Amino acid sequence: MYEVCPRLWYLLMKILVLNCGSSSLKFKVFSDRDLYWLAGGMVERIGQPDSRLRLTWAGGENEWPGAAPDHRIALQRVFHLLTQHDIVADPTQLGVVGHRVVHGGDRFRTPLLIDAASLEELRQLTPLAPLHHPANLRGIELATALCQGVPQVAVFDTAFHHTLPPRAWRYALPAWTWHEYQVRRYGFHGTSVQYVSRRAAKWLDRPIEELNLIVLHLGNGASVTAVQGGRSIDTSMGMTPLEGVVMGTRCGDIDASVPFYLMRQTGLDVTAVERMLFFESGLHGLCGSGDMRTVRAHAAAGDADAQLALDVAGYRLKKYIGAYSAALGRVDAVIFTAGIGENDADMRQRACNGLELFGIHLDSARNGAEGTDERCVSRDDSPVQIWVIPTDEELEIARIALDFITTA
């Protein structure tokens, strides 16, 4: 359809965005050239008896409990509800399906139109993101089968960071590790950073090409990115999403020799140590919970470990803001986004405390005020503005997929 009448296709299309995880499936549907939101939701706990599907649309919000034994049935249920509520007439009539893919390696720096050959190339990148990649690819395979003839476009979290200069992406390792195995800093959360950077330019009323920003994407996974003129010049995550600041269950920056020491001292094998660093560390490792809300509750009750976890996490964020202020030379705004960044006033306070020498002055009253909108939380006289901007990765994926398919 796209090849025959691209203009008509563009006018009539609806865009589906899929974010497929190991036990979840997030989705949003957009329509029209203005990317108007039509519906969205999530299937949780796929493969578990208590799986559930949640759908929000213009007509309301509902939740359906029941078995979703695998991703195929989960996606079939999503399409059934989308057609039942007249959101999508038929899956094969979609204009494009945009997929979040965590890792594009060094090869994929732009969106990718999926076919059999490109899907096989993506499979070869699985060692770079073994926790995310199989689920991402499963979503592509299922959508291709259920939406026959509809263009499937992969949008990579790593793509935004391919503007990093060599001094930022190259590790100080033997050259063969890069040339033969592509060991380098890739960075993640790029789609989110790209979205909030454009929104920041709107609120600052300046072309993004003129702005220097520090973006903190703070959720269960967290990263900090230095954005110069709309381009990433440094970011805290590395070859995998393990490096950088303290996260829910991931350790962030540690001495590279720690895993070897633990293997020698404890007898743990590589798999066990890798699992520890990804799933048993971070906030969870420091105080027993990776959920920031639980950590806060324990800290408020006087739990010293939880209080230390908050101190460590906030301090690491402050260090990165200071480092990226130096890297950028001039900072116009610091942006907080994602679940913790948008909703946790105390963590924003911890991240900004003591950075007045960089021109970063948080307004305590503004920062502590309730709100879910895009808002400035710095003092009026602060040389560097501080903003809270809710992210919308699905909307950005829809925009990227639309731009890609209409200009292909």
From TrEMBL:
Binding, ATP: K26, H217, L218, G219, N220, G221, D291, M292, R293, G339, I340, G341, E342, N343
Bound cofactor: record note: Mg(2+). Can also accept Mn(2+).
One Pfam family linked to the record: Acetate_kinase
Catalysis: reaction(s): acetate + ATP = acetyl phosphate + ADP
Main location group: cytoplasm
Protein's UniProt keywords contain Nuclease: no
Binding site for Mg(2+): N19, E393
Family, per entry: Belongs to the acetokinase family.
Identification of the protein by name: Acetate kinase
Taxonomy of the source species: Bacteria, Pseudomonadati, Pseudomonadota, Betaproteobacteria, Nitrosomonadales
